[in-house]
Amino acid sequence: xxxxxQNSEALNIQEGKTATLTCNYTNYxxxxxxxxxxxxxxxxxxxxxxxxxxKEKRKERLKVTFDTTLKQSLFHITASQPADSATYxxxxxxxxxxxxxxTGTRLTVIP
Amino acid sequence: xxxxxxxxxxxxxxSGTSVKIECRSLDFQxxxxxxxxxxxxxxxxxxxxxxxxxxxxxxxxxxxxxFLINHASLTLSTLTVTSAHPEDSSFYICSARQFGxxxxxxxxxxxxxxxxx
Lengths: 111, 117
Prior knowledge:
The complex is a heterodimer of chains A (111) and B (117). Chain A has strands spanning 3-6, 10-14, 19-26, 32-38, 45-51, 56-59, 62-67, 72-77, 86-93, 105-110.
């Protein structure tokens, strides 16, 4: 069966450092992969989408990579700030199918 | 940007009652809406997908007679939890997608926290 795993249920880093979150998937081949941010008691908010033919995507301090050979996506936040503290969810997507979310990584940026 | 509104944001009710949650797309026509459930410290689990004017498609293990979904217009979908019990207590989140945007971000509501006593 399809499986989406995000390593580290929780990740603590010092302010100013780069946070790196990992998303691994098995038993399917997504054409797209999306990353969302979720704050406590709120719905997810879209951050970035990367296609299978793209190696890397950037948006301000965010960077996403997509390695279809390793079946893995990395999500980086550079120059992290306490306001970046949240749960980050990855969602590999096959074509026009529905989104299924990973287990999430709860990031805490320590001042 | 696109906005999805969910109502109510929080509801407490007695066991055995039915609860209706509304999901509205405020500035676009949502041909497809999704309902998710999220338990504490867990990720979102897709419950069902509904297309406007059609019956909802439920994920495996989700009881369609317990979780009634109606998507009668392009801007409104409702989820009714029938005869709710304490184990149905959870955070329910909807999302919406426009036609032709299947590979674009979904827009999520802010969720409804349901507590069954």
